[in-house]
């Protein structure tokens, strides 16, 4: 071909052969963009006039709205309110302890816990009258710790937050650099299964020369790569995997993310960890207690996957039907605990942008937990207080994904569907005013 022919080549935007597929993508993007622009304009103009001093020093802060940003903000606010509303409740439980061969074994109560101290005391007294514990059963069964599925973008972000202690954005920025340098495959993918025609053996083979995981890679190559595939595929990019060995030039977060990609790849194409679980059931009077132990027989993928732990929990030998008299039974008390505030890990699957975390919507505590700011609380509470009918929104999204091909003009909609939301938009501002007095408590 001539140089002119080459210059006329066009980039393929969508890896689809059906005309409707890119159309749906365009409609979805347009709907998201238009709704975001409309609500951003509404919020900004309305709130800047009434609460300029609260938003920023010059009163010109943009109060943005996004179709991904706001659901994520809603999750953060919902969890925060759940923690705020939580009322601790006292509970009591029975715990049986027995020492054999110099090892203390703790048997957990089948009832777990009760919230009535008097009832627990009565059950405790009944057990003490029995004067002995009987081993009712000793059972053993195989246990499997499954290897991970291939790495997609959301899982990479979650692992980076939980295991590497770096933010999802930092992880993706580093992954992009590694991709541009040719170390890993394209890091933005929804696929978690390898194509059947992909040569995994060659990818594993080039990892056998690295001292940190070379021996394990050689074993995987000997057995044959056997990925534990998921069910998702975007039909555009394979799961994230290594493309070449590091020459030793990677440092800091680049090395951490690269190592995670390599170890995860080797883990998902290897084999599961195997073990044997022992379960001992004891009875004192009318109450039953259980103790469990674990003996790991094959570490499997855990030999290379340093981010998961699965270790032995040995228990002494007991014989079914034997009587125990030298046990200790006691009552322990405690209180129910509220759920943790969200951190970046759970939010990764609900978020595609960082907007919620940069405009007084959400703050990050020292422990990495998210706490909503006054603006985030006000926006969520304000929109909830409107009680907007979602029928129009549902039709918009049905139009985007091709379920329906036409929408009624605004003039044909009942006037109440348009006037009520507009009249009640001031609720956002009203809630913002109420929320401003808790700023110091939140930050």
TrEMBL record:
<dbReference type="GO" id="GO:0003917">
    <property type="term" value="F:DNA topoisomerase type I (single strand cut, ATP-independent) activity"/>
</dbReference>
<feature type="domain" description="Topo IA-type catalytic">
    <location>
        <begin position="18"/>
        <end position="443"/>
    </location>
</feature>
<dbReference type="InterPro" id="IPR003601">
    <property type="entry name" value="Topo_IA_2"/>
</dbReference>
<dbReference type="GO" id="GO:0006310">
    <property type="term" value="P:DNA recombination"/>
</dbReference>
<dbReference type="InterPro" id="IPR013825">
    <property type="entry name" value="Topo_IA_cen_sub2"/>
</dbReference>
<comment type="similarity">
    <text>Belongs to the type IA topoisomerase family.</text>
</comment>
<dbReference type="GO" id="GO:0006265">
    <property type="term" value="P:DNA topological change"/>
</dbReference>
<dbReference type="GO" id="GO:0005634">
    <property type="term" value="C:nucleus"/>
</dbReference>
<dbReference type="InterPro" id="IPR013826">
    <property type="entry name" value="Topo_IA_cen_sub3"/>
</dbReference>
<dbReference type="InterPro" id="IPR013497">
    <property type="entry name" value="Topo_IA_cen"/>
</dbReference>
<dbReference type="Pfam" id="PF01131">
    <property type="entry name" value="Topoisom_bac"/>
</dbReference>
<dbReference type="GO" id="GO:0003677">
    <property type="term" value="F:DNA binding"/>
</dbReference>
<dbReference type="InterPro" id="IPR000380">
    <property type="entry name" value="Topo_IA"/>
</dbReference>
<dbReference type="GO" id="GO:0006281">
    <property type="term" value="P:DNA repair"/>
</dbReference>
<dbReference type="InterPro" id="IPR013824">
    <property type="entry name" value="Topo_IA_cen_sub1"/>
</dbReference>
<keyword id="KW-0799">Topoisomerase</keyword>
<protein>
    <recommendedName>
        <fullName>DNA topoisomerase</fullName>
        <ecNumber>5.6.2.1</ecNumber>
    </recommendedName>
</protein>
<dbReference type="InterPro" id="IPR023405">
    <property type="entry name" value="Topo_IA_core_domain"/>
</dbReference>
<comment type="function">
    <text>Introduces a single-strand break via transesterification at a target site in duplex DNA. Releases the supercoiling and torsional tension of DNA introduced during the DNA replication and transcription by transiently cleaving and rejoining one strand of the DNA duplex. The scissile phosphodiester is attacked by the catalytic tyrosine of the enzyme, resulting in the formation of a DNA-(5'-phosphotyrosyl)-enzyme intermediate and the expulsion of a 3'-OH DNA strand.</text>
</comment>
<dbReference type="GO" id="GO:0031422">
    <property type="term" value="C:RecQ family helicase-topoisomerase III complex"/>
</dbReference>
<keyword id="KW-0238">DNA-binding</keyword>
<dbReference type="InterPro" id="IPR003602">
    <property type="entry name" value="Topo_IA_DNA-bd_dom"/>
</dbReference>
<keyword id="KW-0413">Isomerase</keyword>
